[in-house]
Amino acid sequence: MDVDFAWTAVAFILTLLTLSYLLGDNPLFRLAAYLFVGVSAGYVAVILLFEVIFPRLVVPLIFGSASEKLLAVVPAVLSVLLLFKLSPRLTTLGNPSMAFLVGSGAAVIIGGAVSGTLFGQIRGAIQPFALTQSGNVLQAGSQLMGGIILLIGTVLTLIYFQFSARRKANQQISRSAAVQAAAFGGQIFIAITLGALYAGILAAALTALIERFDFLRTAIQTFLP
C-alpha cells in the first residue's frame, strides 16, 4: 500500500470522526479528541526531551566544563524538587520550584506585555502623526485622520477601564458625566474590536471547515477507482 494513500486514509477517518461532533457528543469524537491530546502531548514531550532536557541539562552535566556543570546543577535540583509535587506528603518540597516557575513566568509575561503591547501601542499611536514620509497632501490627510481616530480610540478605551468615582451629595458613588461619556465611547471601540476579532475567528474557522470538506471530496475521489 502506498504511504501517501495510507496517510490520506488516516486523515480521512480522523476528519470524519471529528465532524461527527455535529451530531452531538459521541464516542467517535472522543476517540479523535483522545488521539489529538495524546499525539500533542507526545510531540511536546519529545521536543522538550531532545531540545531542552538533553542539550541544556544532561549534556552540560556530563560533558560540560566546571562552570557549565555548576550552572546546570541549579535547574537539575529544581527539576528534582518539582517531582515531589507528585506526592501529597512531600509536596511542600516542590514549592521552591513552583515559586521559581511562577515568578519567572510572571516576569516574562509582564515584560512582554510592557515591551510588546504597551510600548507597541504607544508607538503605533504616535507613528501616524509622522507626516514626513507622506507622498502628497491627500495621503498625509488620510494618515493624520487615521492617527487621530486611533489616538481617540486608545484614550477612550483606557478611560473605560478607569473605575475611580466620587461620592455625591446624595451619598451615591458614580463617575462624572464627562468620564461616563468617554467610557461609553471606549465601550464602542471595544465592541468594534471584539466584533472584528470574532469575525476574523469565524472566517478562519469557516475557511478550515471548507478546506476539510474539500479534503473529503478529494479523498473520496482518490479512493474511488
Annotation keywords:
extended, mainly alpha, 2 strands, two-stranded antiparallel sheet, 225 residues
What does the secondary structure layout of this molecule look like, with pairings?
Layout: H1 3-19, H2 27-63, H3 66-83, H4 95-126, H5 137-160, E1 166-167, E2 173-174, H6 177-223
Antiparallel strand pairs: 1-2
Q: Any overview of this molecule?
A:
With 225 residues, the chain is mostly helical. The protein has a domain at 134-225. The protein is built from 6 helices and 2 strands; from the N terminus they run αααααββα. The protein has helices at 3-19, 27-63, 66-83, 95-126, 137-160, 177-223, and strands at residues 166-167, 173-174. A two-stranded antiparallel ribbon has the order 1-2. Helix 1 (3-19) crosses helix 2 and helix 2 packs antiparallel against helix 3. The chain is extended, with a radius of gyration of 28 Å. The model has no long low-confidence stretch (mean pLDDT 87). The chain crosses the membrane at residues 6-24, 31-50, 70-86, 98-120, 140-161, 182-210. Keywords: Membrane, Transmembrane, Transmembrane helix.
Computed over alpha carbons, the radius of gyration is 28 Å
Distance, first to last CA: 15 Å
Residues in helices, as a percent range: over 70%
Mean pLDDT rating = 87
Query: Helix tally?
Result: 6
Overall SS class = mainly alpha
Biggest sheet record: 2 strands, antiparallel
Biggest β-sheet: strands ordered side by side in the sheet: 1-2
Order of helices and strands: HHHHHEEH
**Shape type:** extended
